[in-house]
Write a structure and sequence with these properties.
Bound molecules: zinc ion
CATH topology of the largest domain: Aminopeptidase
Shape: elongated
CATH class of the largest domain: Alpha Beta
Helix content: 40-55%
CATH architecture of the largest domain: 3-Layer(aba) Sandwich
Order of helices and strands: HHEEEHEHEEHEHEH
Strand content: 15-25%
CATH superfamily of the largest domain: Zn peptidases
Number of helices: 7
Mean pLDDT: 87
């Protein structure tokens, strides 16, 4: 090979290497975006702070499930004393595979110390009003403007109702009620029951239902064992994920 040909050969070789590296990285990006579903879901989950004042903080965990699916919001922490059901959702939802929809979880953390009370206590307990205020101030605006098909507000109770595990919309006759009834019908242990006595409705689920985002509650009996709470939560998650949206 002449010196001139050798130089030409070297240049072509270098160009070929650069092209290969470029092609390889593009393929890797393509695989990340459209390759295995689970890896994609995990890599796109984000957590951001959307509210922070003297009452507490509000965070949102975004893109759980199918990031390309229609959007559904879950809300936990409106009533901080009911935190056993909140942590049950936070533990169970990310563990479910092959979800149809894209889930954002709004997490309200009141700054007031409530955990020392341990069990559910009546309505006037610490943090209850603060959680509701944080829901109206920070969660409501994001959900009502966030192109969500549905919002589900997670609560617990201390055997206070004739049903242990139930869903309901505080607004009768709307799409929120329809979705709640569908979920109840598609599950084994979740009833549909409207107790007509919510303190938090005006702070989140009522204005959502009245302004274009169907919303319903889950109420779970906090005295159930964790295994039972986990099972009921998986039923809820599956029921919600099986809803059909037009
Ligand atoms: Zn509650």
């Amino acid at each position: 090979m002449s010196r001139k040909n050798y130089r030409l050969f070297l240049i072509i070789l270098i160009i070929a290497i650069i092209c290969s590296v470029f092609l390889f990285t593009q393929l890797a990006v393509f695989h990340d975006q459209f390759g295995s579903g689970n890896a994609t879901a995990t890599s796109q989950v984000t957590r951001e702070l959307i509210g922070n004042d003297s009452l507490g903080t509000v965070e949102v965990i975004k893109n759980v499930g199918n990031p390309n699916g229609k959007k559904i919001a879950y809300v936990v922490g409106v009533h901080p004393l009911e935190n056993d059901t909140h942590t049950t959702l936070l533990n169970q939802l990310p563990k479910q595979s092959n979800l149809n929809y894209c889930y954002d979880i709004y997490v309200i953390n009141v700054s007031m110390n409530y955990s020392q009370y341990g069990q559910l206590l009546p309505d006037d307990q610490p943090g209850r009003e603060e959680g509701q205020d944080l829901a109206l101030k920070y969660v409501y605006p994001q959900i009502v403007n966030g192109s969500y098909e549905l919002a589900v507000d997670i609560h617990g109770h201390g055997s206070a109702y004739p049903y242990d595990t139930f869903v309901f919309s505080p607004v009768d006759g709307g799409t929120g009620e329809d979705y709640g009834r569908n979920v109840s019908q598609s599950t084994q242990n979740i009833s549909y029951y409207n107790p007509y006595q919510t303190t938090s409705g005006p702070y989140l689920t009522i204005p959502l239902n009245e302004n274009g985002v169907p919303a319903f509650y889950l109420e779970e009996n906090s005295y159930f064992s964790q295994d039972v709470k986990d099972m009921h939560m998986r039923e809820l998650i599956k029921g919600v994920d099986g809803l059909k949206f037009s």
